[in-house]
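Changelog-adjacent note: as of this version, every example in the card shows the full chain rather than a window. The one below runs 184 residues end to end.
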Amino acid sequence: MIKDNEATDEGVSALQRFQDGYTTRDVSRLDEFMALFVPGLEAELIGIGASVRKGSEWFQGLDEIKDIIKSDWQYWGDVRIDVENARITMHGDVAWLSTSGELVQTSHHDEALGFYLKQMKDLLESERLDLDGRLMEAPHFGMRRLRERHLGEGHCWGFVFTAVLVKNENKWQFHTVHWAMPVD
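Full-length structure tokens:
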């Protein structure tokens, strides 16, 4: 792990605990996992499809973040964050990190089709987008899911993972998490 300055064991282990949650995907332990995030509405998770605050895949507050993580654990593939090669910089009670990873498609994709159709419906009914935006986003979302399905189990996508952590009551918690995938 690259450390730009002296990092506490607790600060360095936050990323590993995040990875451990995505490895085990135990929904019964989701509340425990959410303790990795700062409390209240302050926390943000910005997904791979986000482009506008409060838009699709831009989640704010623990309730929204918990919902998307639950769906990740149920439907997304195997997430492998490169914890070992993460670059972590700390300054006082704030830390930021960057690393890469991969998402390996699993059989969960077929189970997720109903969930994806609901997401498309939500896009079509969203008041966050104008009519043109809705008509473009919903089919684009559907085509991406169809492409993923046809690529099949075992297909691997690379991603970039960045985050900001803050020290809160002597423990490091995620304030902002951002997943990004290259445009294909």
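Structural remarks: The chain has two domains: 2-106+155-180, 109-153.
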